[in-house]
Amino acid sequence: EVQKHSVHTLVFRSLKRTHDMFVSDNAKPIPLDEERQVLQLMAVKLRTEYGSVLHMPTLKENLREKGGPNTGDPYGHKQYSGNQGQELDYMITGTHPYPPGPGVALTADTKVQRMPSESAAQSLAVALPASQSRMDANRTAAGVGDIYRHAGISERSQPPGMSAAMVEAGGNKNTALMAKKAPTMPKPQWHPPWKLYRVISGHLGWVRCIAVEPGNQWFVTGSADRTIKIWDLASGKLKLSLTGHISTVRGVIVSARSPYLFSCGEDKQVKCWDLEYNKVIRHYHGHLSAVYGLDLHPTIDVLVTCSRDSTARIWDVRTKASVHTLSGHTNAVATVKCQAAEPQIITGSHDTTIRLWDLVAGKTRVTLTNHKKSVRAVVLHPRHYTFASGSPDNIKQWKFPDGNFIQNLSGHNAIINTLAVNSDGVLVSGADNGTMHLWDWRTGYNFQRVHAAVQPGSLDSESGIFACVFDQSESRLLTAEADKTIKVYKEDDTATEETHPVSWKPEIIKRKRF
After folding, report:
1. How far apart are alpha carbons 128 and 139 in whole angstroms?
2. DSSP result, 129-140
3. Which region holds residue 101: left if phi is over 0, alpha if psi is between -120 and 50, else beta?
4. Nearest residue to 445 (alpha-carbon basis) of 182, 183, 191, 181
5. Which domain holds residue 207?
6. Which letter does DSSP use for residue 257 in this model?
7. What is the dihedral sign for C-alpha 191, 195, 198, 199?
8. Burial, 258: exposed, middle or buried (Cβ in 10 Å; 0-12, 13-18, 19+)?
9. 3-state secondary structure (DSSP) of residue 262
10. Is 318 in a helix, a strand, or coil?
11. Considering the domain boundaries, does residue 105 fall inside one?
């Protein structure tokens, strides 16, 4: 009868057997083939130290008189020739000692410093191809005087495959081997600094979202106090409050095609408000969790929303039907943008990826995985076919339609909640710690940093920018903040390039892909 043992016992028995089998060989050195090791070491040294010149001709001057190809090569190394099968019987000795081949020590013959002889110059002229040597009698080959003049520049002559012009210049290959100058950042365009000129109060909670209507007469904000407020843009006075959401309002947008306002919130609701009656006329049901953002398609009646349920949904504005559910993200989708050109939908997610979507098929075209942390903000440039994404690691710029990487904008070391850009190329990034950085879009130069004081009565910890947007004239910048206020910035009209110079240095660009 076979005795049954536990797995633990069997494993240890197997280990013991294995140990007993190999214990006699334990710590024994592996026998080395000394000759093979020497050859391997020499081959490695040849490749690492002389790899760049192995293709060059290595036969000495007056080779036939000295007797045989291996003269002066005690190791019998293979001669590395640039033109296999052609007889290369020249090497012009320069003004410095030069070994006859890679890895070969100097001999009594090569230790002598001497200028090239006339016979060496003649052999070089004969070895040149006919097509080059007969092109022009005046520049057939370098004369003895030329070789003397350029002797210190390059000791070896070029193989026959090289151009006559190179030989004329003394065979100088230094220009080709020179390191290219590293690219430097171009001088950024000068932008006037932006200054705070108005603080608007009225909300009773964090102001989470903001949008300016197409006519540039008023703007709308959504807040953690569950209300939507409409403000006069010129005076900053409250015009209207809309109630209906039962949790924080996370997104608002005004339609340019109809008198509708769309809003979404953490109550999973997406609402359409008729601004002629100031009432909700449509609900869009389908999201399973908080709805974090929304955007309207510029040319068709389509609404796109993104949610904490890891999806984005495309809605028909009129019929309220869910046209597509864009699945693929593995964490909350924080931001969504639409454009008329392909790809028509762009989403950024807490799973650190950005996805470019095919609107018709409802599928991902491209997934960008370069960010290391959550992507909470995406902005499209109004004129260029490019966009930017914001994450705590850095801001990245991309090129449509395939999401080709352009550059990193590093320096805003905070959780970036929002991005905005205008036609002049001013990019604004707003962060969770209340700081706002302004960048030159083209060069990525950070020309201004702003940290506005919090509203009196608020805690310092309530310093955060949740959303920012330029008005339609792009002369005003509005920010929605954690101290329950809306701050309005404008360009400093008195500033000039002399009073506020660009403190820019043409530093070397360090473009990291990741």
Report:
1. 12
2. -HHHHTS-GGGS
3. beta
4. 191
5. 203-491
6. S
7. positive
8. middle
9. strand
10. coil
11. no
In a domain, 271, yes or no: yes
User: In the predicted model, is pLDDT for residue 165 greater than 60?
Assistant: no
How many other CB atoms are found less than 10 A from the CB of residue 497? 10
Closest CA to 417 of 347, 485, 471, 465: 465
Q: Which SS3 state, helix, strand or coil, does residue 470 take?
A: strand
pTM above 0.70, yes or no: no
Q: Which residue type does 180 have?
A: K
Among 439, 325, 438, 346, residue whose Cα is nearest residue 389: 346
Give how many domains the chain has, as a whole number. 1
CB 268 within 8 A of CB 290: yes
Residues in the chain: 514
Strand 218-223 and strand 194-201: the pairing is unpaired
Q: How far apart are CA 81 and CA 84, in angstroms?
A: 6
CA angle in degrees (0–180, nearest 5) for 70-76-78: 85
How many other C-beta atoms can be found within 10 angstroms of the C-beta atom of residue 442? 16
Report the run of H or E that residue 431 belongs to, with start and end: strand 426-431
> Could you tell me which residues come within 8 angstroms of residue 342 by beta carbon, excluding any fewer than 6 positions away?
358, 365, 400, 401
Please, which residues have CB within 8 angstroms of residue 455's CB and are 6 or more apart in sequence? 199, 201, 483, 484, 485
Q: Kindly report the backbone phi and psi dihedral angles of residue 15, in degrees, each rounded to the nearest multiple of 5, phi listed first.
A: -60, -40
> Of 26-35, 402-411, 503-512, where does the model show the most confidence?
402-411
Question: For 92-128, what is each residue's pLDDT tens digit?
Answer: 444 455 555 555 566 666 555 555 555 655 555 555 5
- 55 within a domain of the structure (yes/no): no
Q: State which H helix or E strand residue 43 sits in.
A: helix 34-50
Query: Among 421, 454, 407, which Cα is nearest to 435's?
Result: 454
**Higher pLDDT among residues 167 and 451, named by residue:** 451
Query: Residue 185 domain-assigned?
Result: no
**Is the CB of residue 34 less than 8 Å from the CB of residue 76?**
no
Show Cβ contacts of residue 111 under 8 Å, excluding neighbours closer than 6 positions.
97
Lowest mean pLDDT across 219-223, 227-231, 450-454: 450-454
- Mapping DSSP onto H, E and C, the string for 275-286 reads CCCCEEEEECCC
Residues 57, 158: Cα–Cα separation, whole Å: 8
Q: What is the mean pLDDT of residues 50-71?
A: 59
Strand order in the sheet with 354-358: 333-338, 345-349, 354-358, 363-368
- CA 295 to CA 293: how far, in whole Å? 7
CATH of the domain at 339: 2.130.10.10
Of 151, 148, 132, nearest to 140 by C-alpha is 132
What average pLDDT is seen over the chain? 81
